Amino acid sequence: MDALTIEKLHGWYGKSHILQGVDLAVPAGQVTGLLGRNGAGKTTLLKAVMGQLPRIEGKVALYGQSLDGRPADARARAGIAYMSQEHRVFPELSVAENIKVAAAAVPDPRPLDEVLALIGEIRDHLRRPAGRLSGGQQQLVALARCMTMNVRMLMMDEPTEGVMPQMVDRIGEIIRALAHERGVSVLLVEQNLGLSFSVCTDLCFLEKGRIVGGGTPATVSADGSLERILGVRMRGAKNAA
Amino acid sequence: MMDFDVVAFQLLNGLVWGLLLALIALGLCLIYGLMHISNLAHGSLFMLGAVLTAYACNTLGLPFWGAALIAPLVVAALMLLLDRVLFTHVLGREIAVSILATAGLLLVIDNLVLAFFGGEPASVDAPLDGAVELFGITYPSYRLAAAGLAILVLLAVGLFLRFTKYGLFMRAVPQARALAAATGVPIARVNALTIALGGLTAGLAGALATPITGAHFQMGLAILAPSFIVVVVGGLGNLGGTVAVAIIYGLLRGLLSVAMTPTAAEATTLLCLLPVLYFRPRGLFGGGA
Amino acid sequence: MTANSPVAVLRIAALTFVLVAPLVLNAYWLFLALQVVVYTYLALSFDLAYSYSRLLSFCQGLFFTLAAYVATYVASSAGWGLPAMLLGGTLGAALLGAVVGLMLMRMHTHAAIIATVIIAAASLLVGNALSAYTGGDDGLSLPTEQIGIGLWQMHSGLNLATYYLAAVPLVVLICGLWRMRGTLTWTVIRAVAQNDVRARQLGYNVTLRRYAVFVASTAVAGFGGALYALVMNHVTTGLLDISVSVNAILYAVIGGLETDCGALVGALLVLPVTELIASVFTYVQIFVGLLLAVMAVAAPKGIVGTLLQHTSRSRTVQKTEANDDGAPSDGLVRPSSI
User: Fold this and answer.
1) Is the complex ipTM more than 0.95?
2) Quick check: A55 contacting C, CB < 8 Å?
3) What single DSSP character describes residue A30?
4) What pLDDT score was predicted for residue C20?
5) How many contiguous H segments (helices) and E segments (strands) does chain C have?
6) Which residue range(s) make up the domain with A120?
7) Touching check for B35 and chain A: CB below 8 Å?
8) How many structural domains comprise chain A?
C-alpha cells in the first residue's frame, strides 16, 4: 500500500503557478527521494502536502484518508510530519520542551524513552535552549520531535544542509532506522546525493512543478536520467545502491 | 512628615495603578507576541469591563464581586466572537490590515457603549470600605485588595504559561508559527484562547478599577497610550519586561501626582517614557527582533 | 495609464468638482465641500506617510491640530496676517514632524506604528493639561475675522476666497503627485517604500528619504490645519481625539492608499454621508469604525487602488512574493505599479 498519494496537485505562491499537476505515490515503510534542480518546486511540494501553501488544488491522501482542505495542524495530527528547512526547532524552548510540544499536540505520542533510545545524543542537552545547539544537534532535536509525534509519514527538506559530515551519516542512520525498524514512510528532499543514494529505495525527479520520472538509484544512474535532469553524474552510484 | 505621607500615598496609588496597567498590557503583549496583531481596541476592552461592572452593580443590583466576575467573562466572550469575525481574517496579513481593522473596532466599541450606556460617568462603591495602616499612612483596603488580586492573576498567567499544555503552545507558536502547525499544535484554538485571555485580563482590570476611578466610555482612549507604551518600552512581546515597565510607569505617575494634576502627571509620565524609544528603539528589554 | 481609464475619469471628475463646487452648491453643501477639502489634506498626509515613508501614522492629526493652533496664535489683520497663518502653521507642523520623525525612523515598523498611536493619545492628554494655552475642550477663536495679505483683506470662515484658497493648492498638489508618476524621483521614492534593502544596494540613503517624505507629509497636514483655523474660526483640543485621525484615515483607505486622488475621492464620498447621518443619528462613528474594519479586511486597496489593479492586470503579469508564513502578500504596501 502507498503511504502518501498525490494526484494532480497544483500550487501557487501569489500568482506564480509553481506546482503544475504533481502525481506521486510514496510507498509505505520506505525512503523515497525527491530530486530536482533549484526552483523545481521541491519545497513547495512538501508545503502543499502539509497544507501550508496559500493556494492548493488537487488531491492528497495519507493511507487512503484524504487530507484535502484541512489545515496543517490537523494534517500533522493525522500522522504526517514535515521537517522544514526554515524552522528546525523552537529556539527559545528547551530541547525537552521542544519534544513536549509534539507530545502534547498529537493524540498518540511516542514515549520519550523510546525516542532517546534511538537519538541518544540529545539526552545531555534536554534543558538547554534548542536555539543554542549546533545545526546538526538541532536537526537531531527536529528528528526527535517528529519521532515523538509517532507519525506514519515523514517529509524532510534538506536535513543535512549546513551539517558536519559525520552528522550526515548519523542522520542517514536514523532515517533508515525509522523507515526499516519502525515502519515510517519517508519522503526526502536532499541535495547530498551520497546520502540520497544510500538511504533511498526509490527516487523521483521534479522538474518545473511536475514529476518527470524516477526509479531505483541504480536505474536512474544507469539510464542517464539523473544526469539529464540534474546535470550531474553519480560516481559509484551502483555500488551505493 | 506630612509630605512623606502624601508621597507614600501617591506611590501606593501608583503601584496599584501599575499593577492594573500590567493586567491590561499583558493581553496586548500576548496577542502581539502570538499573532503579530497590535489590538488598538484593547483599551476599549478595559473600558467595557468597567462599564459592564458599573451597570451590573448599579442597574442590575448585583454585588460588586459578582459583577467583577461576570464583566470580564462577557468581555472574554466578546473577544472569542471577534476572533471568529475579525482576528482570523487579519492573521498573517500586512500589519496595516490588522491595525486599521482594530482602529475601526475601537470606534465601534466606544460608540456602542456610548449609545447603550450613555456618556455620564458612573461610580461604584468599593466592596471593602475600611482602611489599613501602612507605612504610617492609612490606605483604603479595597485598593490593596485590588492590587493583591492583580498580582495573583499575573502569577496565575505566568504559571499557566510555564506549566500547562496550552501555555507551552502559547510560548512555542510565536517562535515558529509554521513549525508549530506542522507539529500538530492546534493554532486556531491557541489563537482563540490567547485572545479570550487578553479580553479576560483587560476586562478584569476594568472591573477592579471601577470602584477607584469610576466608569466612563472614554476611559479606553485614556488607557491607550499608557498600555501601549509599556508594551513597547518593555520590548514588544516580552511579558516580563512589560509587567516591569507597567509597574515603573505606575510608580512614576504616582510620584508626579504629588506635584501636579492627574492629567498632567499622566502626560508627563508619557513624555518621560517616549524618549526611551529614541535611545532604545527596541525597548528596554527587547533584545531580539 | 491611458487618458480614458476609469481612474483618470474619476480623478478629473473629483478635481473638477472641487473647482466648480462654489458655482453649483448652496451654502450648506459648499461648507461640506470646504470641510472635504480641508480634511483631504489630513487624509493625504496620512497617505503620503504610509505609502512613501512606510509609516502607518496615527499622529498626523497632531500636526494638523498644532498648525491650527499656531495659525490661530499668529492670525492678525496686519498685512502679513494670511501668509503668517499659512506659513506659520505649515512650518510649525513640519518642525514638530522633524523632531518626531527622528524617533520614528529609528524604530522597527511595528513599534513605530504603535509609537504614533502613543503620540496621538498622549498629545490629547498634553493638550488638555495645557488648557491655559489651548483652551481645552472650549478651544480658542481666531482673534480677528479680517485676514489678508498686503492691502487685500478677506473674511475668515466660509466664502469664495477661503474656499479657493483651500481648494486650489489641493488641486495643484494632487496634480503634482499625478505628474510625478514615472519621473525618476518618484521611482526612487517608490523603490525606497517597497524594498529598502534593494534601494540601499542601489546607493540610496533609505532612512533619509523616508524621513524627508515624512516631514513633507507633516507639512501637508500642517497646511490643512492652518486652513482649518481660517475657515472654522475656532480650534479645540477635540481635534486631537484619535477619532479625527481615524476618520481621515478612513477617507484615504476608502479612496485607495498610494494613489494620488484616493484621499480626495474617499473624503468626497464619506464625509458628506457621515455628516448627513450624524444629523439624525448621534452615534454615526459606529458606522465609521465598522466601515474601516470591513475595508481593511475585505478591500485594503480602496476604490482607486482596485480600479488601478484592474487596469494594469491586463497589461502586466505581476508576481506576488509570499511572506514568511507562506500567505500571499496583500499588495497593500505594493499595489500594482503603473
Assistant:
1) no
2) yes
3) S
4) 93
5) 14, 4
6) 2-240
7) no
8) 1
